[in-house]
Description:
This protein is α/β, with parallel strands linked by helices. The chain has helices at residues 8-14, 25-34, 78-93, 113-120, 134-145, 163-175, 197-206, 229-238, 258-261, 332-348, 350-371, 399-407, 432-449, and strands at 44-45, 65-66, 75-76, 128-130, 154-158, 183-186, 211-217, 242-246, 265-268, 283-286, 376-378, 391-395, 411-412, 414-416, 420-423.
Amino acid sequence: MSNKPTNPLSTLEAMLERKNSLDSEDFAAFMDKEDPLGRFRDRFQFPTLGSIPCETTGDQDSPCIYLCGNSLGLKPKQADVYMGEQLANWGEQGVFMHFNGRIPAALADQPGKEITASIVGAKSASSVTIMNGLTVNLHLLMMAFYQPSGRKNKILIEDHAFPSDRYAVRSMLRMKGVVEEGMLSVKPRKGEETIRTEDILEIIDKNKDDIALVMLSGVQYYTGQKFEMDKISKAGKQAGCMVGWDLAHAVGNVELKLSEWGADFAVWCSYKYLNSGAGGIGGAFVHERHHRDMPPHLEGWWSNAQDTRFEMRDKVDPAIGADAFRLCNPPPWLAALNFASLEIFEEAGMEAILAKQFLITGYLEHLLTTRLSKHLKVITPQDTNQRGCQLSLVFNCDLNAVHQRIQSRGIICDVRYPNAMRIAPAPLYVSYCDVLQFVDILQEALEFCK
Length: 450
């Protein structure tokens, strides 16, 4: 993807042909007809106007326009099949389900490892593991890789990081006997919404004798800014820091090359862009340079190598790579849901997903800025190298009133305080016609609420 275009509008205009304009139903329909990912839309179940727990107007059997994959992805229909198989295996086989069936319970985390490694840019499947939830994994990895020593004891995170990251960092500082001032934050410049890469690099360089761990979000949850993970990882390692990433809003959304970038570790959830269900199983990456010499970390039965696990040894025979951080057997129900989505990612391919993300987010941005600029501001970077599919909007009228009005028309998106509405046209199931209809409905709501 290194030679990909940087201006989605020019690409869209080149596809205009004889259609009326970009802002037209025939152009949106043309784009959907030409969309190589369009066939995957039917692989997901959409909420309908009649199924969501709020009052709506319109045909109650009509599917909602779902722009909330940044919070919870849609359910793959195959998830019903895989969950049903797990329940059937339990009922019909009892203890034998551990090593039998399409997704054996005791090995349920293994089928998705190769696909996951490809999505996050790991050189081998041994660099990733599928386990726990995001914050549990963040604690496990920080406990191992954050080793404060003397004045080099600070953890760098971004200002207004997701609350769980802030809570985890502060509690880790306390666990390691470091005062709260050990949490160092990098902030946007005055009057700006997002954080400049040069400011992150500067704070790392100026504080290289104090920072033990650089731990930022791959994509900032509020603004939708994608941090330049390659440059930041390189700067962190050059400064003698450990580098970790929270990829909750990045995995399945933006291009990742974790092994190439040299990050020491990363963690993520799977229920956003990876469509694995609420509270879905998380994942972690540990760079291959650590595999033969892991830092001290917590261990459990599942930290043991799979081949010798049932020898019940007195001391652990460590699994190679990220699997050494597992503590207990994987939940087969959650792993099965995760695998149902990962199979779609494997079939679609990240290159095609990223190509559509580039175009459909650019299409959304074009419609918003050409039609609604007097009502709203997009605070997500225009630079396509610094965003995924999420655009964050702020309005000059009441945010909640706008949200309630568009929700009553079947638009599903979310708001995050103090004043942002987050819109995410996830490429696997959102159409160009969805985007156009959303902007039409949003325009009506903004004019009504002004």
